[in-house]
Write a structure and sequence with these properties.
By secondary structure, the chain is α/β, with parallel strands linked by helices. It contains seven helices and ten strands. The strands form two sheets. The chain has a six-stranded mixed sheet with strand order 6-7-8-3-9-10.
């Protein structure tokens, strides 16, 4: 993927709505306008039922809007067919979830090679080197041969982050990435995400219920009742030191 300009719009949603049901139609999202630029680390917060998960599914190209447009990394995803969406998702998005979803029978390195093999159909030395570098970037270069059961919860989540980053996505979507971790480990995982954001100008959107984590992002987007209620810069000086 070519290196984007610093001011490039990575994600753009215009007038996005989402409704469910046929006989009784329920509109869950109401006219969402949202833009993320290269190098932003934004938090998406809001109470349960506010529409965060629905919005994340649309941004992740796992569902389609009822109305409105979605552009991702300069490409219009709104009317794309399933095959095109699948390719765009594989090329431009990285996903990190609350639970790591690693394959227990594979080593850390092999877990990173899985998405690369799915995209290319084969594994070569260059891909192995890329996967190894991704593990090194999250501090696990020496644990490439370990299986998930041999790693701590925080280490497993680091592997999951490396897996999301191994193909150098334009946008990383992190859904409650620290929700299953203790406070100290959660801070450590956030530092990994922040480091990737700062060092490589990676655009990251974090969905979280943790106000501490949200305050450490650059920007806080709050959803209420299917609408963006506020979109503000996080308090100055709230970001933690990255070691």
């Amino acid at each position: 993927m070519s290196e984007p300009a610093d001011d490039e719009v990575i994600l753009s949603l215009r007038g996005v709505t989402k409704s469910f049901g046929k006989e009784v139609v329920t509109e869950v999202l109401h006219g969402i306008d949202l833009e993320l630029r290269r190098g932003e680390l934004a938090a998406l917060i809001g109470p349960s039922g506010s529409g965060k998960s629905t919005l994340l599914n649309l941004i992740g190209l796992l569902d389609r809007p009822t109305t409105g447009t979605i552009h991702l990394a300069g490409r219009d995803a709104t009317g794309a067919d399933d095959e095109t969406l699948s390719l765009l998702r594989a090329e431009t998005l990285g996903f990190v979830f609350q639970f790591h979803h690693l394959i227990g029978s594979l080593t850390a390195l092999e877990n990173l090679l899985m998405p690369l093999s799915i995209r290319g159909g084969w594994i070569d030395d260059a891909q192995r080197e890329r996967a190894q570098r991704a593990l090194e970037s999250v501090g696990l270069g020496k644990r490439s041969g370990a299986r998930p059961s041999e790693l701590s919860g925080g280490q497993q989540q680091r592997v999951a982050i490396a897996r999301a980053l191994v193909h150098e996505p334009a946008l990383v979507l992190a859904d409650e990435p620290t929700g299953n971790l203790d406070t100290a480990t959660a801070d450590d995982i956030f530092a990994v995400l922040r480091g990737e954001n700062r060092d490589k100008r990676r655009t990251i959107l974090v969905v979280t219920h943790d106000p501490r984590l949200a305050a450490r992002c650059d920007r806080i987007i709050t959803m209420i009742d299917g609408r963006i209620a506020s979109d503000v810069a996080a308090p100055a000086g709230a970001a933690p030191t990255v070691h």
